[in-house]
Amino acid sequence: MIICSLLMFIFSCRNLNDGNVIQRSDTVKSSELKMKADSIYNNDNYELAIIYYTLLLQKDSVNADAFFKRAYSFAQVFRYEESTSDYLKAIKLNYRKSDAYFNLGCNFSAQMNFERALYYFQKALELEPNNQAIKDLIKISKGNLKISQI
């Protein structure tokens, strides 16, 4: 926990593009944070992406893309509760609802909560009724749910 807090402090105080210390976090523009967060995210550095998206969301609390990508990043490091919370915020902001519901289904599948997984896969299917991948995961989730109830 202390190491995580220390890392958060270090990364929030440095502009990693050029290594210069930032005097105040207010001096960093949201667009700069977004570009850096997206770059880190696209390089699959999810722990660091979480930090940057968190900083971005402190400046722009309705940035649906940041919620969505931070949710995905949380899921990649097995922090499903935080991931779920961010996906629900993205949905509330009407951002990539089908993808968010699909990913929520994946989160709950990974946690072996097949009932909730099924619920979210069905929500995704309502928005994309012809998506075969969602249909396949619904079938798998129903099977897993039956097995888990034995």
Bulk shape: elongated
Instruction: Domain count, please report it.
Output: 2
Note the run of SSEs as H and E: HHHHHHHH
- Specify the helix fraction band: over 70%
Classify the secondary structure makeup into a structural class. Answer: mainly alpha
Number of DSSP strand runs: 0
> What radius of gyration results from the CA coordinates?
18 Å
CATH homologous superfamily caption of the largest domain:
Tetratricopeptide repeat domain
CATH level 1 class label of the largest domain? Mainly Alpha
Number of DSSP helices?
Answer: 8
Unreliable segments of 5+ consecutive residues: 1-24
Round the mean pLDDT to the nearest integer and report it. Answer: 86
Give the DSSP E fraction (strand runs of 2 or more residues): under 5%
State the separation between the terminal residues, measured CA to CA.
Answer: 39 Å
The CATH topology of the largest domain, please?
Answer: Serine Threonine Protein Phosphatase 5, Tetratricopeptide repeat
Q: Largest beta sheet, briefly?
A: none
What would CATH call the architecture of the largest domain?
A: Alpha Horseshoe
